[in-house]
Each structure stands twice: as C-alpha cells, then as structure tokens.
C-alpha cells in the first residue's frame, strides 16, 4: 500500500495549547545547561518525587529534566514529554543531543511549536538515587542451560547479582517499575503547570505512555507510541514474537547485503557467515581488544543486534562483522552486556518483564522454541535477555504483563514496523486494538521505530503532533 491514505485523513479539531493549573507544586526552575555538542538552547531542572508513595519514610528521588524551548512562543502548542526507550535510556541526553529525530527536517515544526522535554526516569543516569549494581552479566554463565545444574547456576548468579543491586541502590530498586514512572510523569506535568501534556515515546517509552494514558486519559493532549510494546502479552509469548522478529531482520539484512555496494560482506552467504562467526565465538576463537579476551557468541550477537535495529547503520554493521574474526571490538563495544546502562536495563526490566521460568525443563522448552523460530539469531533478543537475567532475581516484580484498556483520550498515534526486530508489528496491532481512539501507522522499512527508519513516518508524526491530523486507517509508509 502507498501512503496516499495520509492525504485523505480526516481532520480533527485542532489541539488546544496546554493551560496553567490553579494549584500544584512550585514551578520548575530552568537554567541554561548546554555543553559541547548539545543544542545551545537546552535548559535543565529537576522535580522531587517520593521513592514509594505508600511509604513516604523511604525518602525521595530527584528526577532530572531538560528542555528545548519552543522556537515560536507565540504559537506554542504546549509541552512534549519524551522517552527514548530502554529501559535505562537517558531522556535528558536524547533531547540535549537532538536525538530521536529532533535533528531531522521532518521534526522542525515540532521544535518550533513545542517545549520538548526530556527526563531520566527514576534510577536512570542523572536522576538520583541511581540504580547501581556490580555486574549482572557473567560470560561464563550459560543463558541457555540444558539441565538442572545449569539452571541452578544461572538462578544463583542472578539472585546474587540482584542482591548486590539492592544493597547498592537501596529501596529505589524495589520501586523502579513503570507504574511508579507513570506517577513521576504526572508529577512532571504538574510541575510544568499544565493541565495536559503531549507524549512522544519510543520502544519502552511506549509502555510508559500507554500506562499513563490508561490512568490519566484526560491529561493527554496528544500521544505518539512509536516502536510499540504490548504489555498485555505474556513474557512467554513476547519472547517468541521477538525472537522471530530478530530472525526476520537478519534475513532483511542479508537481502540488503546481496545488492548493496555498501555491504562489506557483499558476495558472501551472509547468514552462513554469521552462523560461522557465532560458532567461532562458542569455541573462544573471536578476539576482542576491547574486552582483552575472546568474545563469547552472546556478546557478538548482542553487539550485532544493536547495529541491526537502525537500517542506516547497516554498512557499519557489515564492516564490524567482516572485521570481527581479526578483532570483534566494534561488536563487543556495542553489546548490551558491556553498556553502562545494563544494570538499570535489568533492574527495571525485572519489574515489567519478569522471568516466567519455573525450572530447567520449562526454560529449555522455551529455548528450544526460540531456536526453532530463530535458527540463525537465537542467541540474542531482548526479552530472552531480560527474562533469563530475572530468573532468580530477588526483587518481586511490581508491574508484570497485564492488559489495560485506554479510553477517553485525545487521538493516539501508534507506529509499528513490518520488519522491526525489537518490537514486532503484532505488538503495535495488539496495543492499538485496546485504544478506543487509536490509529496505527505501519512503516515497511526495516529497523526499530519509524522515527529512526522512515522519513515518511517522521512526517506523519510531526503532522499529527502539530495539527491533530492522524493517518487514515490502514496507512502504510512504503520502504
């Protein structure tokens, strides 16, 4: 399908600008905080929230914020709160460096009309206290155990890692779930002095936004959920969905390599090459100067995945794969397991995507299913990573998967990709089905989120946020 359906979209009543509320917390104090490489207009502030709203004695957390002020104050549409994903992604960094599309021409009108707000969710980056752990990953621990001994070793390691996180982080770790983040978002809204706010969330940011809309529908002026998660799907179902989506993305990459002069592996059987590289990783034959030791297959697969999610990065990914047998540093540097935000990724993830595995036979059955749907790429997908890391985790989950119906909101735009390796299109469809006033825009380009992979999707997002015009039902952005 072509995108001409967008031109025939029904016009909605123009969205009203955010208006001041009569009561609430003191207004935020914004101060200039530009640094080299950031937008020169960026300003910073913070808002204080309870760590546990049911137990104020546990103290408070400080949520770090920043803002790119609207360039056209006379036609300002309100505040646009953003989240770049994760869990563990820094909203302040993404805004300061004009990430998540704000440096593109399609989003210029959003910058003109909105105060764009970034925030670091509780426990993340500049917000304090921060989630602090030792190393919740050990390359010697098998994430695909095949027997009781292997399962027990995995569970014992993750239990010890969680206990260390809890000791270093304190009570915030037990309250780092998305339901608490939703309450923090509303505290930010109140501190901004506005009755309603708009939301632009990518990936994990779609879960925050959807939960906010379900709880506070009348406080949503507009909402974009791009690269949509579906928190109604069980961890077991989501694991298989995502594993299959990663496999599909590798086939898309291989097809691109066959014809693109930018692919460093052009002329080779890319999937066979990838399988061979993973096998060498299993045998400890892939060196990484970055690690100072051979890279494991898990580390190689994780680094490759992080290059797979944005199609414009595929030339760089192909070169990293081609060079890996001499030095896999470019892959291991990109690996989720070596990133600074990995502890927060697991600390939050275990609340929202807890382990469904009751024992070794259960886990092995799930692993076998993953290998069936993803024969090349089974070693790394995000839901498998989180759920296995949460097997034995000592902190009880506060926000496990559950369905929520969203009604009474302004129109909400959900964006999903036909070849998204991180958040499969079936998730976007599932989420949209539970939003009374929801519209799904599909993009056909490969990669995670329309914002990063489709100029057509960016244009539709900007048009909706500024004017209230949503795409027509069934609209598709072509590749």
Structure description:
The protein has helices spanning 4-7, 91-96, 108-113, 148-169, 178-192, 204-215, 235-259, 270-282, 297-308, 314-323, 329-334, 342-352, 360-373, 382-389, 425-433, 450-453, 455-467, and strands at 31-32, 43-50, 60-68, 78-83, 114-119, 197-202, 220-226, 287-288, 293-294, 412-419, 438-446, 476-477. By secondary structure, it is of the alpha/beta class. The strands form 2 sheets. A 10-stranded mixed β-sheet has the order 1-2-3-5-4-6-7-10-11-12, sandwiched between helices. A two-stranded antiparallel sheet has the order 8-9. Helix 5 (178-192) crosses helix 6 (204-215), helix 7 (235-259) runs parallel beside helix 13 and helix 7 packs antiparallel against helix 14 (382-389). The chain is globular and about 60 Å long. 40% of the residues lie in helices and 14% in strands. The chain has 17 helices and 12 strands. Helix 15 (425-433) links the parallel strand 10 and strand 11.
Secondary structure: elements and pairs:
Blueprint: H1 4-7, E1 31-32, E2 43-50, E3 60-68, E4 78-83, H2 91-96, H3 108-113, E5 114-119, H4 148-169, H5 178-192, E6 197-202, H6 204-215, E7 220-226, H7 235-259, H8 270-282, E8 287-288, E9 293-294, H9 297-308, H10 314-323, H11 329-334, H12 342-352, H13 360-373, H14 382-389, E10 412-419, H15 425-433, E11 438-446, H16 450-453, H17 455-467, E12 476-477
Parallel strand pairs: 4-5, 4-6, 6-7, 7-10, 10-11, 11-12
Antiparallel strand pairs: 1-2, 2-3, 3-5, 8-9
Helix pairs in contact: 5-6, 7-13, 7-14, 8-9
């Amino acid at each position: 399908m072509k995108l001409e359906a967008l031109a025939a979209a029904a016009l909605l009543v123009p969205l009203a600008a955010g208006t001041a509320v009569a009561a609430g917390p003191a207004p935020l104090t914004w101060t200039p905080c530009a640094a080299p490489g950031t937008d020169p207009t960026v300003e910073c502030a913070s808002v204080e929230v309870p760590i546990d709203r049911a137990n104020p004695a546990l103290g408070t957390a400080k949520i770090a914020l920043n803002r790119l002020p609207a360039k056209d104050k006379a036609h300002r549409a309100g505040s646009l709160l953003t989240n770049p994903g994760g869990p563990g992604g820094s909203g302040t960094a993404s805004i300061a460096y004009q990430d998540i599309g704000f440096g593109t021409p399609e989003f210029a009108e959003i910058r003109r009309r909105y105060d764009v707000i970034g925030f670091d969710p509780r426990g993340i980056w500049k917000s304090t206290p921060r989630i602090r752990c030792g190393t919740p990953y050990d390359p010697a621990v098998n994430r695909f155990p095949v027997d009781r001994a292997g399962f027990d070793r995995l569970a014992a390691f993750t239990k010890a890692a969680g206990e260390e996180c809890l000791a270093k982080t304190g009570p915030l770790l037990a309250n780092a779930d998305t339901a608490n983040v939703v309450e923090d978002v509303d505290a930010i809204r109140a501190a901004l002095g506005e009755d309603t706010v708009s939301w632009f969330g990518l990936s994990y940011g779609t879960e925050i936004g959807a939960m906010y809309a379900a709880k506070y529908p009348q406080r949503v002026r507009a909402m974009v959920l791009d690269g949509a998660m579906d928190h109604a799907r069980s961890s077991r179902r989501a694991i298989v969905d995502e594993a299959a989506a990663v496999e599909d993305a590798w086939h898309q990459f291989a097809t691109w390599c066959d014809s693109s002069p930018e692919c460093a592996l052009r002329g080779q059987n890319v999937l066979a090459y990838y399988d061979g590289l993973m096998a060498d990783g299993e045998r400890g034959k892939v060196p990484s100067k970055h690690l100072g030791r051979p890279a494991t297959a898990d580390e190689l697969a994780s680094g490759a995945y992080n290059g797979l999610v944005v199609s414009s990065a595929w030339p760089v990914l192909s070169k990293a794969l081609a060079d890996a047998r001499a030095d896999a540093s470019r892959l291991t540097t990109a690996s989720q397991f070596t990133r600074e935000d990995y502890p927060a990724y697991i600390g939050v993830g275990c609340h929202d995507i807890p382990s469904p595995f009751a024992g070794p036979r259960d886990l092995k059955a799930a692993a076998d299913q993953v290998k069936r749907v993803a024969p090349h790429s089974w070693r790394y997908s995000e839901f498998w990573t989180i759920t296995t890391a949460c097997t034995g985790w000592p902190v009880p989950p506060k926000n496990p998967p559950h369905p929520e119906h969203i009604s009474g909101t302004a129109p909400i735009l959900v964006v999903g990709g036909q070849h998204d390796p991180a958040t499969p299109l079936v998730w976007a469809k599932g989420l949209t089905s539970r939003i009374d006033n929801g519209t799904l825009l599909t993009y056909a380009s490969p990669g995670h989120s329309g914002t990063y992979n489709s100029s057509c999707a960016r244009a539709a997002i900007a048009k909706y946020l500024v004017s209230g015009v949503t795409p027509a039902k069934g609209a598709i952005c072509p590749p």
